[in-house]
Amino acid sequence: MQAIHGRALVVDCSTGTAEPFPILPAVSAAVLGGAGLASWLLLRFAPPRVDAWAPENPFVLAAGPFIGTGLTTSSKLAIATTSPQTGFIGDSLTSSYLALVLRRTGFDALVVVGRAPRWSVLFVDDDQVRLLPAEHLLGRDPEETTATLRSELGRDIRVAAIGRAGERLVRYAAVVNDGRLAGRTGPGAVLGAKRIKAIAVRGTGRFPAVADPDGVHRAARQLATRSLGPETAKYRELGTVANLAFFSRLGVLPTRNFQAGSFPAAEALSGERLVTQHRADRQACAACTVGCEHHFRTSDGGPATTVRLEYETLFALGSLCGIEDPNVVLRAAALCDRYGMDAISAGGTIAWAMECVERGVPLPGSPDEWPRFGDGASLLRTLEAIGERRGPLGDLLAEGSRRAAAIIGQGSEAWAMHVKGLELPGYHPKRLRAMALGFAVTPRGACHNRTSAYEIDFSEDAPASAERIAQATARSEDRSALLDALPLCKFLRHCFDNFFVEAASLVRLVTGLSCDADELQRTGERIVTLKKLFNLRQGWTRSDDTLPPRLLSPNGIDPAELDRLIRAYYRVRGWAADGSIPPERLRDLGLESLLDSVSIGS
Amino acid sequence: MTSFPCRRTTLARHSSDELGLLATGRSRIHTSSVTGHEDQSDVSTMTRETTCHRVELYGLPAVIAGRRTLEVAGTTLAELASALVVACPRLAGPVIDPATGWLNRGYVFVVDGRFTRDPATALEAASEILLVAAQAGG
Description:
The complex is a heterodimer.
Chain A: E1 7-12, E2 17-22, H1 25-31, H2 34-45, E3 59-62, E4 76-82, E5 89-95, H3 97-103, E6 109-113, E7 120-125, E8 128-133, H4 142-153, E9 158-161, H5 164-167, E10 175-177, E11 180-182, H6 187-193, E12 196-202, H7 213-226, H8 233-237, H9 243-250, H10 266-269, H11 271-277, E13 279-283, E14 293-297, E15 306-308, H12 311-317, H13 326-339, H14 343-359, H15 376-388, H16 391-397, H17 400-408, E16 418-419, E17 422-423, H18 433-441, H19 454-457, H20 466-485, H21 499-511, H22 517-537, H23 559-573, H24 583-588, H25 595-601
Parallel strand pairs in A: 1-6, 7-12
Antiparallel strand pairs in A: 1-2, 3-4, 3-6, 4-5, 7-8, 9-12, 10-11, 13-14, 14-15, 16-17
Helix pairs in contact in A: 1-2, 2-20, 2-22, 12-14, 13-15, 14-17, 15-16, 18-20, 18-23, 20-22, 20-23, 21-22, 22-25
Chain B: H1 8-11, E1 13-14, H2 43-46, E2 52-57, H3 60-65, E3 69-73, H4 77-87, E4 107-111, E5 114-116, E6 129-133
Parallel strand pairs in B: 2-6
Antiparallel strand pairs in B: 1-3, 2-3, 4-5, 4-6
């Protein structure tokens, strides 16, 4: 197989040792790279039932075969670790130049285990590894940290850093690089637990050779051209903030902690309004022709703030918290970036707290400090308290909505809007059956990205039967897993007429593997299965695949219907009725070496 | 409602709301005759009833038009798309293919909650029609 190095770098921060770990060609062919390789390495290096805070919990950064090939949007890194929020697999994707330099170190992946004896910077300088003191970086936000390290170590390094939220083990802390956040599932908190303030990488070697350089070059040009077509216009022209007004109109915009699906002030927060009244500029990730990253500036006369904003941040810090003022949302988004926090979980946890206050359930600390729906000042104040873990309220909410509700009790678990401990993103699933199923079953927890199942609900021929919804959801999940393994950005998904067929052609050109569409679909399924295997080993049970009580109500989703959907999904996957994976299914997918993962978990 | 010789150029008109007003309603324009003559021999065509649909625009179409809604006439989505270009010529290109008069691949209609790119979709008088990006979601 071409376009890979065939080895990972394993660093033990406790001992200060580093050594290469061979990745056999069969493994690379089976999982490709990115999220597939990261999931495989996590399973390989994590002990069963490992705690997220434990030194033994691996933190994996993995590149994919498409990185450095010139294929647009391919400069993405996958992160996998045990999530401090869910206790299950925490995988995040981030686009950056870091992906490019990591590939040039001669390694396909970096596996970090152990805990540094003191705060450190892990510096991978081609094949040399050092742990550098990081005390002088503590308290600095990711952007400052990056600037400092580049001035100290050279402009040719790239950095992934955590902010104060990661230092303070906020469970949804992000890893930040090039201004992009890998936030979901809290990988920044795992780095914090390892006392790693930042990972700095210098790679000066060559990218591994591709199988057909001329063919890849032609394919890259064609894909770049297609990436500029109407299929991506939404992302180029407005970005994902365009979703908000439309979602409110459809009744699927989570509002006031999912108490409603439409926000009366949606127009004020709409992407159309932001673009016409707050737009600052537009940028692109490394090696990307789409350029979906829209920056917006405040206009309220306060300290000028310009920040990248996406739909998920907009809904989570806007309608979910009842906030009507776009300037407040922009300032809140900037705080999340500065502290290095996942905005969805931050907003979701604060919205839970707001509902506690609304219902008269007391929170710790002074009532003057409690957050309230629609109160922008209280939102900003609470975000700072969380980022600092300041006071009993900040400390409580830094735990996320599931744990905070368990601590507060008084029935507040009923409005803690999470699946497996991960707060729901911006799709009210009451009217979206495929998305509801996707939220319930995806190994990561409540995630829209790993299934893209909303597309099924929003399609021309939306299926009606449980079996067809389950089939479509599983196939969409497989496609997402494959995109994350190549990697390619999901915003390209509509640029393909037949994704698996065309992706197989690209894989053949890049890697030389003689794969077809069916094999690639199986690769996607294999990666999803790896993630599920990790969860099984962590103690997953059937009861983990569900939705928050609020959604399973007479006015929401019929629990019996959700159960039918989940059982249909298990059947489509070839899993047992209790969601476990039969040995023969693992053998079908070439994962027989991982058979013991199932029994260990149980 | 029946077939009619829709004079879209005269029926298509902008609504008064500026971008920033969330429109949810519809309006109907009943013209007993847009030509001034009714064909008494054919019930299916004599009414000449034209329904003016309020099309809600989301995303780039709204930004281009500078408003949330456009009111245009049509009995099918194909007619509606053509009428939209007449009402807002700047939609031609970014949203509607000038060569075909139909939506380019980036856009889709939502008619009464159903996503569709079928130009033959018949419109009812009370149809709620949204024009949105085909890439719904993030």
